[in-house]
Amino acid sequence: MSLRCSLGFHLDEWKYISEKSCTQELFCARCGRNRGRKREIHDYSEWEFLFPDKCDQEHVCRRCGDKASRTYHNYSEWDEYRGEVRSDTSPLRESLHGSPTPVSVSTYQIVHYSRKCERCSHVESR
What we know:
- The structure is a single chain.
- It is built from one helix and eleven strands, in the order αβββββββββββ.
- It has one helix at 3-6, and strands spanning 12-16, 23-28, 34-40, 48-49, 56-60, 67-71, 79-86, 92-94, 100-102, 107-116, 123-125.
- β1 and β2 (23-28) form a beta hairpin.
- Strands 1-2-3 form a three-stranded antiparallel beta sheet, with no helix packed on it.
- By secondary structure, the chain is mostly beta strands.
């Protein structure tokens, strides 16, 4: 054991525990002591679509074969739609004296946004 290592100044280096594993252990490069720490580092391939008309993707670790998946949509720009809504469920109501009284009618605009995935046609709205 070197003097530095005996004083606690190890030269840490991560090493894979086996060829087909993504688990690494921390060792001292000088004295070879296992430092008691582990981590997992994957070497994933690029994301690939699973089907031509779907947005499901997968990538695979080149080392251990672990698979990860995600859904990745390719949306167009947001489209804006405007519409008017009237809030008049009853144009007349009875007053306290029994005679019909007109109810105020209010109209307001609604703005709706949506966009469509160019690959799978999924629509997202807000």
